[in-house]
Amino acid sequence: MSTSLPARTKALRDRLMGLDQLGANVEETGLLEDLRSDLAAPAAELSRALDQRTLLVDSGIAAAAPASLDAARKRAVSLLEKFKAEKKAATLKKGIGWANLVRDIKAASSDAAAMVVKSWKAYRQDVFTGEAPGVVKGRIAFTPANGAAFKRYEQLHQAFRLEFERLPADRAAIERVRSLAAELTDTAKSFDYAVPAEVKRFLEAVQSGGATLDLLTDTVKTWLTDNDAFASYRILPRGADGGR
What predicted TM-score, i.e. pTM, was given to this entire model? Predict the structure, then answer.
């Protein structure tokens, strides 16, 4: 038996309503996708900054969270609750809530990144409190032992300094910094600062290009002999230009 006209009309109407609803859903999906795109870059930057902070904190390095992070969280929670009640893009775009959320996330990302850098730089002073090589160089006499120790200290300090010109990529990078700091501390302990003033002047002159004979006093000769360093030096005449 053929379907009656009213039945056919109802079926057609239902199908048209379904197509209309499908079109509305496609449009709504597009609007929501646009909102996701608004958040994608700021959210990714914030995530990277928070991952870096977590790395520091989990490694025992103090790194406070910026106040702007809490503000962004509260804004996000508020919008989420409204969206749960009415799951439409228009709900999120109503008023200035969405624009403020994007703004707050960008601010939190910037503040968190700056805080991480500040915390990492501050950790340098916590993990190693020794002097820079330039300061040490002015305080020690360059005996053979001190010279070898200073060379090692200078190399270690250079590697240590470079580690703080970038953020640590992982726990291994942080442990590498701690290892360098420990080696620097041990190396610094090997410096001998207790040398007579005459010896210090003689050794500084040698490091600066050569010591004159008047600096080779009896005190210096005795000290060099006692420290098995006398044979390390020899007398050379200067050339006409003052060089050796």
Answer: 0.72
